[in-house]
Amino acid sequence: MEDLQQRPDHDRQGLPSPAPNQVYVNVSALNGGFLTLPERNFVTDPDPEKGTTVPSMCFLIEHPETSSAKPTRLVFDLGIKRDLTKYVQLATHHHITTRQPVYSSPDARSSLLSGGLDPAKDIDYVILSHIHWDHIGLPSDYPNSKFIVGSGTLYILENGAPYYPHDRIEKGSLPAEQTTELPPIPDSDRKHMAATSQTNHHWQSISTLPNAVDFFGDGSLWIIDAPGHIHGHINALLRVGPDKWVYLGGDCCHDRRIITGEKQIGHYDGGHGRLKCAHAELSKAQKTIENIQKLIDANGEAVEWIVAHDWEWASANQNRFFPRWMY
Ligand SMILES: [Zn+2]
């Protein structure tokens, strides 16, 4: 009989074993404001009356610098703008009225300040899972950070999204001179939207995930292509210990029961005779969720996974928000 324990990792698409002198990152959750999600817009068999006020979580990641005393600090997502009047699109303001109550405090900036970090000075990179209003935060709080976005993001920031509702993109809201887009995804049908990347990164597979970028080249922080929700949607896979990883799922889904398989992506009447869901490209969003489910299946307890609006995770893990650390 086959002994699962003795199977080599690649047979079950496991994550790689630590390299000699493997580098690990630390991670901590940050508050990025709160919004209210009506269940009927997100999952199958919803309670039509139920709305849940959920966090828009961000994450602080610290990569130890081997050559100097200072770690490299990254923030994954910036949450909701603390000043709601700073959204530029009328459609965004209208959308926000459908997500009430919305709380913009504590935001990512005040969360960092609470642990003694100054967003204007101490954050080297901001990685945005995507540019929806509840993830984009206030980029002007980070004048010295490099912004990293997924392929296709700059196109929709310039042109609006090529799908309904196309007018809810906060056009021009990232500082162009600070922003770098990751390279085009191999075999993508959206290559015409891809910007020329100024990074040396390349896409490769890791475990069950077909397209990932080894951000520091040492296997400690992987940016994952997670298509479907909106063009350029990316996730992150963090190596936090010899047999421990954290998967940051962004908006791959808005309800953890979709990852566990208890629910599916829901559809609702979006007006104008359209049946809508929370994702721009449904079949790609489903494939992304499948890949994450397979990652969890193949690696079991080694992977802790969190989606941006996971209120259950947040309420059970308040002691792992900055200035305390998850890992
Ligand atoms: Zn979103």
TrEMBL record:
Keywords: Hydrolase, Metal-binding, Zinc
UniProt KW Cell wall biogenesis/degradation keyword: no
Alphabetized GO MF terms: hydrolase activity; metal ion binding
Cofactor section: Zn(2+)
Record InterPro entries: MBL_superfamily_lactonases, RibonucZ/Hydroxyglut_hydro
Ranges where the record places region Disordered: 1-21
Biased composition (Basic and acidic residues): 1-13
Family (UniProt): Belongs to the metallo-beta-lactamase superfamily.
Protein name as catalogued: Metallo-beta-lactamase domain-containing protein
Annotated source species: Cladophialophora chaetospira
Species lineage: Eukaryota, Fungi, Dikarya, Ascomycota, Pezizomycotina
